[in-house]
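Technical annex B. To support the medicinal chemistry partners, we prepared a structural model of the target in complex with adenosine-5'-triphosphate, based solely on the information shown next.
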Amino acid sequence: MRSYSLIAPAKINLYLEIIGDRPDGYHELSMVLQSIDLGDRVEIRANGIDEFRIHCQHPEVPCDRTNLAYRAAELLKTAYPKAFEQYGGADIFIDKQIPVAAGLAGGSSNAAAVLVGLEMLWDLGLTQPELQDLASQLGSDIPFCITGGTALATGRGNQLEPLPDLEGLYVILAKYRSLGVSTAWAYQTYRQQFGSTYVRESTDLAARQKRVHSGPIVKAIAHRDEMKMVQCLHNDLEKVVLPEYPQVLKLRQTFQQCDVLGTLMSGSGPTVFALTDSREKAEQIRAQVQNTLGNPDLDFWIAKFINTGIQLAPGIH
Ligand code: ATP
């Protein structure tokens, strides 16, 4: 049976701004997304039967129809029923390394890997725009997860503009093991508290554009000015997550006191990250935060920025 093994990287948000409401019920966003070399390994193996089966060792990842990877496979089956008839289903093995419900797009990246892997397994010959369109139907972060690197994401997060690679940066990620934040809760709470400041659909385009503040970070990245870029790190969702979770606020403050280039909560949290320019410094910062907080429930990861999305894993396929 044929199979493909892929690496599905996590992402961090260097910038997340909530602009307003959209008629489709989503939020209008302006985000800068960055892939990092912390990733899940996703193997897609033809199984010769007419179903998809998910296998994952992580206790918090569902192996049923609610898994985003399963939904990606079902979407491709619905879009290309003849290919499904010809090739049949697949077993999808997820080796989970990305922390779950952490604001790092783990589920979205797994779904992106399934779209890429099944497309190859079924010899569909889809173009990038066709694949991106399917990804967009499944979830806002999934188009980015396919192509990865550094990108400006607008609309509901699915309209991508590639940005120059940020090279040589390292990220220290920290997350309390027993803490997960629901993305839906974070956005709903933001809407309740700050919805009155939203730019409305009816606002004319020029006025809408004036309310978007991602210009400086995009310019800094375009000029490869990392010092300027780190001064522009911003995440609107910190305004609702940090007051609700004092330990995340404390973590963020502890990173701030270290010799870091910058620090921020990623996505809807609760992962907090800090940036630095070498692995040695990253190790020192991790040790300093660990010693200061002394909490055995706190997990750390060190990763570097990468300029790729879903990739074939090294080895035999
Ligand atoms: P995002 O940053 O895209 O909002 P996240 O990183 O915060 O997402 P995920 O790790 O994708 O969160 O998981 C969110 C929830 O989705 C989990 O609680 C889990 O139950 C469910 N889930 C479904 N499929 C997956 C998957 N393949 N991997 C991880 N979680 C999944």
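Notes passed to the chemistry partners:
Residues 60-62, 66-69, 94, 100-108, 110, 141, 183, 267-268 surround adenosine-5'-triphosphate (CB under 6 Å).
Residues 170-304 form a domain with the Alpha-Beta Plaits fold (CATH 3.30.70.890).
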